[in-house]
């Protein structure tokens, strides 16, 4: 017995309610269909249908089996579609959530390359540093940078890592007391990023409590204040790399122990993830690998 075909015939029969109608649709005989469904019942050891001269009705077992059989066929169809999509150039819409600073710097360059590689993908990108529910707001993909493992109801793929740097403008360092140790930061104007998990404790060596005249929910805003010589900040590498190279900023306490940020690609944990989402993540992994 071809069990899959028997299940397909049973589902079609339950939907149409007639051996005759199923036979006409499939261009076969009623006896062939009846035999296939009877073999399925024998294999299961239970009657799925009550047969009459005019129609068929589901038994209690048949109703439960129908629901599960439909799910099996739907999963099989989705599996076939997924593989077929992988063989084709990805197309469709991707709604993406990403942190503001990361989106403006690293991810903007990455997605420019992605758009050139996959011109049939329509990107709908939302930048913001607040926590959002990807499922509730309909996002296909999200990005989070964290120095700790994420405890979220999503599938997370690590893409790359970034370091932190304590940064100050040269003029700030010239006008203030030298910073030789982590403890020296307590007497300096250290800026606080609102969404930073440690709040006003910077994770340098064993940790140091900082204070200052600026608390802001944008790292880009904070970086401008640092460049202006107004104070210090603990800044992700991807944001301050170019300013350090140009001499606009100076790294303070380079030897202090600091955590690393891991960039994760997150997508809702569901049975069937669109092929374009997985292809996008594969592209991201390869792109960041080339940057190293």
What is the architecture of the largest domain at the second tier of CATH? 3-Layer(aba) Sandwich
CATH topology of the largest domain: D-Maltodextrin-Binding Protein, domain 2
Number of strands: 13
CATH superfamily of the largest domain: Periplasmic binding protein-like II
Oligomer: single chain
Helix/strand order: HHHEEHEHHEEEHEEEEHEHEEH
Look at the helices and sheets and give the structural class. Answer: alpha/beta
Total count of helical runs of at least 4 residues: 10
Largest sheet: 7 strands, mixed
**Considering DSSP H and I runs of 4 or more, what fraction of the residues is helical?**
40-55%
How many structural domains does the protein architecture include? 3
| Poorly predicted spans | none
Q: Judging from the principal axes of the Cα atoms, what is the shape?
A: elongated
Strand content: 15-25%
Assigned CATH class of the largest domain: Alpha Beta
Rounded Rg: 30 Å
Distance between the termini: 55 Å
Mean pLDDT: 88
Layout of helices and strands, plus pairs?
Elements lengths: L2 H14 L2 H8 L3 H15 L4 E3 L4 E3 L1 H27 L5 E7 L1 H5 L1 H12 L3 E7 L13 E6 L7 E15 L1 H6 L16 E2 L7 E2 L5 E2 L5 E2 L2 H9 L5 E4 H10 L3 E3 L7 E9 L6 H17 L1
Parallel strand pairs: 3-4, 3-5, 7-10
Antiparallel strand pairs: 1-2, 5-13, 6-11, 6-12, 6-13, 8-9
Helix pairs in contact: 1-3, 1-4
Describe this structure in words.
- The chain folds into three domains: 3-86, Arc Repressor Mutant, subunit A, CATH 1.10.10; 92-160 and 261-291, D-Maltodextrin-Binding Protein, domain 2 (3-Layer(aba) Sandwich); 162-260, Periplasmic binding protein-like II (D-Maltodextrin-Binding Protein, domain 2, 3-Layer(aba) Sandwich), CATH 3.40.190.10.
- 25% of the residues are buried.
- It has helices at residues 3-16, 19-26, 30-44, 60-86, 100-104, 106-117, 170-175, 219-227, 237-246, 275-291; strands at residues 49-51, 56-58, 92-98, 121-127, 141-146, 154-168, 192-193, 201-202, 208-209, 215-216, 233-236, 250-252, 260-268.
- A hairpin with a 4-residue loop joins strand 1 and strand 2.
- The radius of gyration is 30 Å and the shape is elongated.
- With 292 residues, it is of the alpha/beta class.
- Helix 1 crosses helix 3 and helix 1 crosses helix 4.
- The strands form four sheets. Strands 3, 4, 5, 6, 11, 12 and 13 form a seven-stranded mixed β-sheet that branches. The chain has a two-stranded antiparallel sheet with strand order 1-2.
- Helix content is 42%, strand content 22%.
- The mean pLDDT is 88.
- The longest helix has 27 residues, at 60-86.
């Amino acid at each position: 017995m071809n069990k899959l075909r028997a299940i397909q015939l049973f589902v079609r029969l339950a939907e149409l309610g007639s051996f005759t109608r199923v036979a006409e649709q499939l261009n076969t005989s009623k006896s062939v269909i009846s035999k296939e469904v009877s073999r399925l019942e024998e294999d299961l050891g239970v009657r799925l249908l009550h047969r009459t001269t005019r129609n068929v009705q589901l038994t209690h077992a048949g109703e439960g089996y129908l629901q599960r059989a439909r799910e099996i066929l739907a999963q099989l169809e989705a599996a076939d579609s997924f593989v077929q999509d992988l063989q084709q150039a990805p197309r469709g819409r991707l709604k993406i959530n990403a942190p503001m600073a990361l989106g403006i710097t690293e991810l903007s360059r990455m997605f420019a390359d992605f758009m050139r590689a996959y011109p049939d993908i329509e990107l709908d990108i939302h930048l913001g540093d607040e926590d959002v529910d990807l499922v509730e707001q309909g996002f296909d993909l999200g990005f989070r940078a964290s120095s700790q493992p994420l405890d979220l109801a999503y599938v997370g793929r690590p893409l790359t890592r970034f370091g932190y740097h304590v940064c100050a403008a040269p003029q700030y360092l010239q006008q203030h007391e030298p910073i030789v140790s982590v403890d020296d930061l307590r007497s300096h104007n250290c800026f606080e990023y609102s969404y930073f998990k440690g709040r006003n404790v910077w994770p340098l060596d064993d940790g140091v409590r900082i204070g200052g005249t600026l608390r802001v929910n944008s790292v880009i805003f904070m970086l401008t204040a640092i460049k202006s010589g107004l104070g210090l900040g603990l800044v992700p590498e991807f944001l301050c790399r170019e300013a350090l190279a140009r001499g606009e900023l100076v790294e303070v306490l380079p030897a202090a122990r600091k955590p690393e940020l891991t960039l994760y690609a997150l997508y809702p944990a569901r049975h069937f993830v669109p092929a374009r989402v997985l292809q996008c993540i594969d592209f991201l992994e390869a792109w960041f690998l080339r940057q190293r």
